[in-house]
Every structure is written in structure tokens, then in C-alpha cells.
Fold:
Amino acid sequence: MNIQLSRRHFLFASAALGGGLYLGLSPQRADAAEAGQLNAWVVVPPSGPIRIMASNPEVGQGIRTSLPMVICEELDADWAAVEIVPTLADAKTYGRQVAGGSQATPVHYENMRRVGAAARAMILDAAARAWGVPVAELSTDKGHVVHQAKRAPYGQFAAAAAALPAPDLAQVAVKDPKSFRLIGSFQPGVNNRAIVRGAQPYGIDAVVPGMVHAAFHKSGVQGAKVKSANLEAIKKLGGVKDALIVAGTDEYEGLAGGVAILAETTWHAQRARAALQVEWSDSPAAFQSTSAWAKMAAEAKGKPPGMPIHATGDVSAAMARATKRVSADYAYPFIPHVPMEPINCTAQVTGDKVEIWAPTQNPEPGRQAVAKTLGVPPENVTIHMMRVGGGFGRRLQNDYMVEAAWIARAAGKPVKLTWTREDDITQDFLRPGGWHFLEAGLDAQGRCIAWDNHFISYGRDGKFVRAADIGPRDFPAGIVDDFRVGATLLPLQHTTGYLRAPSNNAFGFVTQGFIDELAHAAGADPLQYRRDFLGSPRIIGDPKARGPYNTGRMRAVLDKAAAMAGWGRKLPKRTGLGIAFHFSHLGYFANVIEASVATDGTIKVHKIWVAGDIGRQIVNMAGATNQVQGSVLDAIGACMGHAITFADGAIEQRNFGDVPMLRNEQIPPIEVAFLTPDYPVTGLGEPAYPAVAPALANAVFAATGVRLRALPFDTSLLKA
Amino acid sequence: MKLNINGKPVEVAADPDMPLLWALRDVLGLTGTKFGCGAGFCGACTVQLDGEPVRGCQTPVSAVGTAKITTIEGLSASAWGRKLQDAWVALDVPQCGYCQAGQLLAAEALLRSTPKPTDADIDAAMSGNICRCATYTRIRAAIKQAAAA
Structure:
């Protein structure tokens, strides 16, 4: 046992978090052999179902199904019979546990294969010893070891296997992908049955004995603190157990100040909140105003950018020799995440120990923030990663975790904090808005020989706010030789954050709309112009930045989408096809949209054809196509009406009435095809989003001749 | 206050003004019914009263009276409900899944009154239920599959 422990300790200590190969064995698991635990992800008990750990947060992207599928494939267990068990947040054991950046698949895919294969190898080793036959004579089938006519379940060898040294992951044999039976098939989500019975707990469903329900009232203007509040009157209201002022911390994005109301139910807490009278301190965010920002952006146009981002060649000289120059101003607003499950967290503080039940996409920074704010050691914070009712990037920030923990400690009892939808919208970490003042120069053949982008976005202290940055090598850097991008930052106090395909979700609209304009200016077909723009197959970009990308792979999805849609076919009046492509989050996507525009300006999307390339293997066809369809419609929804505006420092929108979401009757058919060239397997939460809005704007242009350069679309421009 | 929930009589000690959503969730512990917007926009809190879909967040518990309440936890008691559940699972409708309780209760009411719904019927019946993940394509397909089952 001592030898085994040191071996396990070695495996753990040598694990490279977020990369490399690791079994996730931690030295604490001295009893692992007895439990049939072969590694951190695989438990084969002597009898009963094999258990596979699902160690990444599930936000609807299907990762608690797809990564266990990968393990199960290589373990050669019976998918229908395995039990999938969510783990705690424990990055020391499991590596990167983040639902973000479409990273879970590329980071974990190869390792999960080896984790499953290693467990299978240990079972085979134990079976060979038990049966006195060479390992080479054994095979496996659905969780059974097979030798000639003999067949025995894995569990029979589990205890012996768990006592064996774990194989070297770098050496362990994995399957030939041609023999995959599970990977690449259509597997419904492992929680589906519980979901349709109302039996699947989400964060908001956490129940801790003795807990009270909390509302947390903040001013809505960032940084404002409570000067006074009518707490005594609030405490007398029905169902209210307590009310207290949270002073908050002073740092940006620290614990916000406000009034916490603790009550018997969420409803009592919210009802009492309506009677709150609070005097707020002045806020440094009071200046925020959408109209003022628009004015600042307009004034910045024509002036040199406040900060250079990237330049190659000589843009001015190239513009001077251009046969034609094309200018266009693009703009997009702040948009919210509005996950369906409102922001919530349940917390219990006992002495210097904190237990958290949270719908989170990113638990480790939450652990650190809770530990820092409450002054407890990070290892004293236990985080249950509850199934998340939608993330879209909002729950990469863990502000609500800190709030719940703080309020629970102040209350001296477990607390479930639930935000209202109004809280969610007015206190979101918004996708930043922006403007792009673009100019391009075309040569006599219509080729783009110069590209100049003055990007206006938001910053604090001379730096981009979160998710507002443009990368120096972002498309089309590296394609147009004489290239320049610079930025001017507008002041912002409100929090911003990553929203599905951050930066790309807006840049795709801008670049692919503008390229369409260049195609028309050149008198070229928009598809052919894009082919020529991409040029010959090559690698472009900086590996350390948002790339690099392969223009050949991009060209392939572009051609595929065009072929699927029948690009170039004749269409009725005021109906058009639009095309666009975009690379983001390691994924290549192109789509064609057919849309018509009624005489009153109403846009109807008839159909969307999507071609994607995320490497050689789709893990789960069920989840994959769901992600693509969802991303595409998410982007359509943003075109049709999402915009957050500010007045007097605060957000003006309140609920879904002000942030209209797509509904059932607005949904076009979506055809999805995956190309699977021989490249590493990557993720799918994000890359299908960015090329959608421009394809729709380009379709509207084809239908009407009106170029939409701002999100959301102003359909009043489209009246016949 | 006496309620009938999923075929069983239930005694609930709730303020008469409390929305049924919160009586179910925070008083009775039936957390399958979801809070989404609190304002009747999204349909996440959809339950059925005497078989008709209503917004749990907009229905004071005192207004329920003797009406029979069906929540997602009781959906399996309906033959249409079971067909819908099977189709939802098989076609992998959910992404995050948070809205699906409301979607299913709306769909069950549709199929009970209109066993062979047209697309227009589905549009009309399902328009009040937002799916932020936009699983609408599969919701429609699953309703059709359940109708054909």
C-alpha cells in the first residue's frame, strides 16, 4: 500500500493542470483500491454500475455527457449501463473545470481517452493474472472481459485492478478511431430523463436544512453604497426574518454594497424589497449614458486612434494608390446574457469553512474570491457545481457566489440568494458595445490592398475593459498586407464580460459585412470575393493570440455552406442569400442565410445552412448539432432586438419585455454539416455564432440593396 | 389552504397573495417548476390548472381554488405527457434544460386538445415559452414525434 500511495502521489504531483496527461489521482485517496477506483474518473465497483465522473460544469453544452462518452469509449464499458457522477470543484484533481472558451473538449479530449484506456488496461491486467492467460489473448466488450468462451464483468477484477500500478498515460494504447462505437454517435444528454420529470436539481433548487431565502438589493448604478435604509420597517414585514446592510468592498468588481433581506421564501424577500427605502452614496458610474457615448464615438471619428493596436506595411500609401476606397461605420450595442435560470447561489458558513452550491461556469476563481472576501483559506471553500440553467459566459464571473457567502455568514445560517430577472439584466457583465470606422482600398482588379480600422470601445485606466479588446492579429490581419487597427477607449464603470464567442460575436458581423461591401464595390460575387480574399491555403496568425487559423480549412467550410444552399440561384423579389465565414475558438464556420424583407421592413429568415469544422471528430452528434443550432439562433436573436442602454449611470432595460428573445414561431430551419479533416478535436459552444449576423445582413442587402451596419437591425431602414 | 397537486390533496400554509410558483418551490419543495422572469414573459413557471397552462408566477395561490394543479413532477401521469417525455429524451431536446418543464406542460396541453397539431398550432401553443438556448427546432420535432407515437 505504501508503494502504491507513493506511486499515486507521483502521478498527482506530476500532473500538468490544463494540459498534458494526468489521471487526477490525489494522494488523499488511500482507500481508492477498496472502492474499485481506478483513477479520478473511473470507479468499477465489484458489483453494480460502473461510475464515470463528470468533472466539468454543465451549462447546457452537453459536457457532462460528451467527456464521459470519451472515457466510456476507451474503457469499453456499456454506455447504457454506466452511471455518470458530477464531481465537486477540484482543479487539483481534475484539471481545468471551466465551461468557457469552447475549451473543455480541446483541453480534455485526448486525456479522457487515455484515462478510459488506462482503466481498461488495468482491468485487463488483473483479468490476465486471475485467469492465467496473456493479456494479448483478452478482449473487452461492453464492460466485460472476454477470453474465448469465457466472459466476466469488469467488476470481478476491480479490486485487484485498483491495486495495480496505473499505466503510463503516454504509453497506454487507445482505440483506432475507426473502431469507435460511442464517440461520434447521437447520445441524448445524461440528465434528460431527470429534466423532463422535473427531477434534475439546478443551482436554484439547492436546499440546505435551516436555510433562509435572500434578496439582495443594490442600487443598479455600479459602486453606489448604502448610506441608510429603513431596515427596522422591513424587518417587521410578513415573512421577513432579518434585513442587513452589506457595506461592500471598495475595489472594482468587489462585493457590491446593498441591503440583504432574509425571509421565509424568495417571494417574501422580494415583496419586502419593494418597501425598501435606501439612500445611496454617489457613484463613480453616474456619468454613464448611451447618448453621450454615441456622441464621443462620433467625435473620435476622423481623429487618430487613442492607442495603436497593430500595423503592417503602409496603409496610407496603399490607400493613395488604390483605385477605389470604401468607407463604412459599423456599430453594435452592449448586450446581456440573460441565462434562463436567474442568478442564484446557496451558501453555508460554519466557522472558517464555507460550502457553496452554485450554478457556475468557472468555480476556481469563485473559490478564490470567496476566500479572499471572507478571509478564509481557499481550501476551506467547498463548491458544488450545480447544473447550470444557461451560462453564455455570465457565470464565468462569480460575484453572486461572494454575495451569498457574505450574506450567509452575516445571517449566521445557510442562505439561498436569488436575483430577480431585473437584477440579472441591470447588473450583468455586459458584452461591450463598439464602433468600427473602417476604410479599405481596392486595386484595379477589386482586390483589397489596404485595411484601416479605427475601433471605438470601452476602457478603464487606459486598458480595454473585459471582453472589449481587439487582438493585434485578429482577422483580417495577415491577409491584407497594408493593414492598420487602432483603438479609442470610452470611459465605462459598469462591469463587462465574456459572452458566447467574445469579441468575435461582434467582429464577425463587422468584418464579414464590410467584406461584402468590398465585394459589391468590386463588382464581384460575394462568395468568389471571399475565396479570393482568403487566398491560397496557409496558416495565418499568432499561436499565442486568437489563432492561428488555416485559410484552407476556412475556404472548405465556405464552399460547403455555399454548396448546401445552392449559392447563386435565382430568388424572388426582396429575397436574398447572404454568406459569411468566421474563425473563432479553434472552430471554422461559414453559413448562408436566405431571407426576405417585407414592404414594412420585417425580415423573415427562410433557412440557414451551416458548415463547420472543429477537427477530425465530433464527439456527440446530439450535443454538437444542438450547440450549432442554438448558437445560430442566439445570434439571430441578437440581430433582431438585443440592446442594453444606459441613462443616468444605470441600465434602462428591466425584463424580457425590453430584451425580446426569439420565440418558437420565428425559428427557421437550420441545416448543419460538419467537415472532419484530420486536425485536433476542438469545442463547439462558440464558433458557430459569429458568422450568422453578417450572413443575415448580407442577405438583407441582397434582397433590398440596403446595407445594415448596426446591431440590432433597424428594420425601419428596409421599408419599400 | 387546500390544494390538489398532481392528483393528491395538499395542505399548504401560504400567504394567499403568494404566487403559486413560490408556494410550489419554497413552501412545498416542488422545485421542478422554475422561476424565470417573475413577470409572465418567459413561461418557465408554466403549470396546468385543470389542464390549462398558466403562469405560476402570475397566479396567486388563493386564485387556484379547487382547480387541479399539474406540475412537471406530475406530467408522467398523462399518456401524452409520457410520449412527450420520451420524445424529448430521444431527440435530445434540452440544452441547459431549465425552460423545458414549462415547454412540456404547454406541449401536453396542446396535444390533449389537438392530437395532430399543425405548425401553426404549435406556434400558437408554444409562443409563450422562451428557450434561451433556442432548442425550438427540436421542441417542434419532439411534439410532432409524440403526436405520431
